[in-house]
Amino acid sequence: MSGVLAIYRRELAGLFMGPLAWILLCIALVLNGYLYSVYVKFGTDVDAALRMVLGNSIAFWVLVILFPPLLTMRMLSEESRSGLLEFLLTAPVTDAAVVTGKFLAAVTFMALLWSSVFVYAFVTAIGGPPADWGLVVGGWLGATLCSALFCSIGLFTSSLTSVPVAAALSAVVLDIGVVALPLLAGLSDAPAVMRLVRRVHVLDHLQNSFLFGVLDTAYVAFFLAWSALFLFFTVRSVESRRWR
Fold first, then answer.
1. Which residues, 6 or more positions from 175, have their beta carbon under 8 angstroms from its beta carbon?
2. How many domains is the chain partitioned into structurally?
3. Residue 158: which domain range?
4. CB proximity list for 142: less than 8 A, separation 6 or greater
5. Distance between CA atoms of 74 and 99, rounded to whole angstroms?
6. By C-alpha distance, which of 137, 146, 147, 144 is closest to 215?
7. What angle do CA 100, 139, 143 make, to 5 degrees?
8. FRET label pair with 123: which of 40, 84, 165, 209, CA 20 to 30 Å apart?
9. How distant is the alpha carbon of residue 48 from its chain centre?
10. H/E/C letters for each residue in the chain?
11. Counting beta carbons within 10 angstroms of the beta carbon of residue 173, is it exposed (0 to 12), middle (13 to 18) or buried (19 or more)?
12. What is the pLDDT of residues 159-190, one digit of tens each?
């Protein structure tokens, strides 16, 4: 895994040197700030408002489904089209290091995006009731882990094509499937289906633990395991280019 840090620094710098990351960051900050102020203004308590921003609202799921694919769509597909990926594959870094470095850069950006909730909680505490800081930290961690899962999906689709737009659209479809299929399957009364749904239910794993300030290692392992699975698929996809 040598070279992870070098790839990570390169990708993170590339994100913040381009306009897309700044546009996404501004959209998220404006939207989350506005919605948080609306939730508090209309009588919702601070903790409930924070839960809305970090996973209990449609706005959160729109952001977490759309933003990771937009961040990752060029990381492998554009480099494949330009020939830079072949250069990286011949450099003294492993395929796993290339994928991991790019993944960590995307996750770091999403972690910074969700860290705005610390500002909301601090400002609210100055002029009103204090927030539950366990909820703030747990909600931020849950939102980051959930974003990491979708970043890994975005990298996987980016490794399959040399067209960034196609990679982004494919990732969005997969993200919607990950969120919606457990809800649809939950309509079944079959016990086996219900057990399977509980194992892959992203909303349940986020909303019933992190948003209450509870750090359950089983829920952390859920997001890490699924992220690792898609990263494994991505590494295998990148390795297959050596044989083409």
1. 64, 65, 68, 69, 150, 153
2. 1
3. 4-243
4. 54, 55, 206, 209, 210, 211, 219
5. 13
6. 137
7. 35
8. 209
9. 22
10. CCCHHHHHHHHHHHHHHCHHHHHHHHHHHHHHHHHHHHHHHCCCCHHHHHHHHCCCCHHHHHHHHHHHHHHHCCCCHHHHHHCHHHHHHHCCCCHHHHHHHHHHHHHHHHHHHHCHHHHHHHHHHHHCCCCCHHHHHHHHHHHHHHHHHHHHHHHHHHCCCCCHHHHHHHHHHHHHHHHHHHHHHCCCCCHHHHHHHHHHCHHHHHHCCHHHCCCCHHHHHHHHHHHHHHHHHHHHHHHHHHHC
11. middle
12. 888 888 999 999 999 999 888 876 665 556 66
| pLDDT tens per residue, range 24-53 | 999 999 988 888 888 877 766 788 888 888
Tokens 């921003």 belong to 53
Amino acid at site 48:
A
Decide: 241 and 84 in contact? Cβ < 8 Å: no
* Pairwise CA distance, residues 197 & 193, whole Å: 6
Q: How far apart (Å, rounded) are the C-alpha atoms in residues 11 and 15?
A: 6
